[in-house]
Amino acid sequence: MWYQVFLWCLAGSVFIHCIAAFVACASLRKHSRGRFLPLIILFVGFLYPVSGGAITSACIAAVYKTANFTMPVYVAFLWGAGQSFISFLLSYSRILPTL
């Protein structure tokens, strides 16, 4: 159960970071060191789901397992894509620097 949520979180995060890497590559292609920035963006796209995404996916699955609920595939998609979307919103908002 947690694996499905984790995979959707990974897919959503990689999709969002691939778009960001494409934009960075298109705008920084002539920069001497900036052309390597998309590689870092893609690395971060894999880093969050492997660390924080796996933990939150396991917590969501544990709640479902404890409550004896079944998790259909579309619910796993909603949880995984929701994690990626919330991560996207937090990274583009200015909330974290004010804390």
TrEMBL record:
It is found in: Membrane. One of its GO terms (cellular component) is membrane. It is a multi-pass membrane protein. The chain crosses the membrane at residues 6-28, 40-63, 69-92. Pfam families: Tmemb_170 (PF10190). Keywords: Membrane, Transmembrane, Transmembrane helix. The keyword Ion transport does not apply. It comes from the Eukaryota. Belongs to the TMEM170 family. This is Transmembrane protein 170A. It comes from Nematostella vectensis. The lineage of its organism: Eukaryota, Metazoa, Cnidaria, Anthozoa, Hexacorallia.
